[in-house]
Amino acid sequence: MKSLSIASLCTVLTVFVVTFVVSAVDSIGTVYSGITISLLTASVAATVTMVVVIAWALPLYYVLKKLKRQALHWYLLASVIPSVIFIYGFKPFGHDSSVDLAKQALFCGIFGLIGAAVFWYMAVYRSRITRRSSKDALTRAA
Fold first, then answer.
1. Taking burial as the number of CB atoms within 10 A of a residue's CB, which of 51, 79, 121, 129 is the most buried?
2. How many CB atoms lie within 10 A of CB 31?
3. Where do the structural domains in the chain lie, given as residue ranges?
4. What does pTM read for this prediction?
5. For residues 121 and 110, what is the distance between their CA atoms, to the nearest angstrom?
6. In this structure, are residues 49 and 86 in contact, taking their beta carbons and an 8 Å threshold?
């Protein structure tokens, strides 16, 4: 449970930082340049990420664990679904054309892939390393 909490926090923090950096770089030289709009954008992205982690990633983690599907590609594949649902279902940026919606879904999908990779590393891969090293320590002690 502790590793899932850490994985969830790291995922939200990673999405916040990446969104902040992309937003800050993208807004240079525009009317909306400044740290406040970048912080606002990153905060909204982090809030959406928290909801997705609680409602999608954690239940999916338990399902994939039960099915013994712990490889990275399962998490990456599953991360695309909330991105598409968020953009096409809620249309958070207004009624855009289908090309703009596809761009937004791609953008959110990339952030979803980054978040899924961080979540997988912290929740699955890192815990496997920890379990393996503690088993080795027990065998060496015996």
1. 79
2. 7
3. 2-141
4. 0.82
5. 17
6. no
